[in-house]
Amino acid sequence: MRVFINRRLVQPVMGLLTQGITAERIALSLAFGISLGIFPVLGSTSLLCAIAAAVFRLNLPAIQLVNWFVYPLQLMLLVPFIRAGELLFRARPIPLSVAQVLTMAHADLLHTISSLWMVTLRAISIWLLVGPLLTFLLYVCLSPVVSRLALSIPKPSRRANGV
């Protein structure tokens, strides 16, 4: 697993750092990718990440890469977002699991959307409370990590470039 993460996540981020993208912009891209990647509406995160990348001038490959990596986390947090929304709005809990939502969506997507739209709105409300704070905290935590990665990249020597 460590080799997989290194090859699929760390090395691409280091590659972006060698292209002149600042560590701060990469950290912000990663923070947005994680927080938007757990948005409680299945199938919406790639579009949300692309919009965030355009609006905040973030690195699109970095934000989408992390969005892809956190997909399992989105699935794990879907029901907790729903339950927290039920608590916040004092709604009657509905018996629901991720497997049931996925089965419903595969069987009839439009019916699933119409059946779960209030549940989804409540879950989005919770994400709207948590998402911005999570993005900020992730940025604060990731900035020094990405900066250290940037410092670990060997700089080309002037002699090797003929200067």
Describe the structure.
The protein has one domain. It contains seven helices and no strands. Helix 3 (45-56) packs antiparallel against helix 4 and helix 5 (71-88) crosses helix 7. It is mainly alpha-helical. 77% of the residues lie in helices and 0% in strands.
Topology:
Layout: H1 2-18, H2 23-37, H3 45-56, H4 60-69, H5 71-88, H6 98-107, H7 109-152
Helix pairs in contact: 1-4, 2-3, 2-4, 2-7, 3-4, 5-7, 6-7
Question: Characteristics of this structure?
Answer:
163 residues, mainly alpha, 7 helices, 77% helix
Number of E strands: 0
Principal-axis shape equals elongated
Q: Strand-and-helix sequence, N→C? A: HHHHHHH
Give the uncertain stretches in residue-range form. none
The gyration radius over C-alpha positions equals: 19 Å
Largest sheet: none
Give the termini distance in whole angstroms: 42 Å
- Percent of residues in helices comes to over 70%
Number of helices: 7
Helix/strand class: mainly alpha
Instruction: Assess the beta-strand content as a share of residues.
Output: under 5%
Number of domains: 1
- Mean pLDDT score: 86
Q: Please state the oligomeric state of the protein chains shown.
A: single chain
Brief synopsis:
This protein is mainly alpha-helical. It is 77% helix and 0% strand.
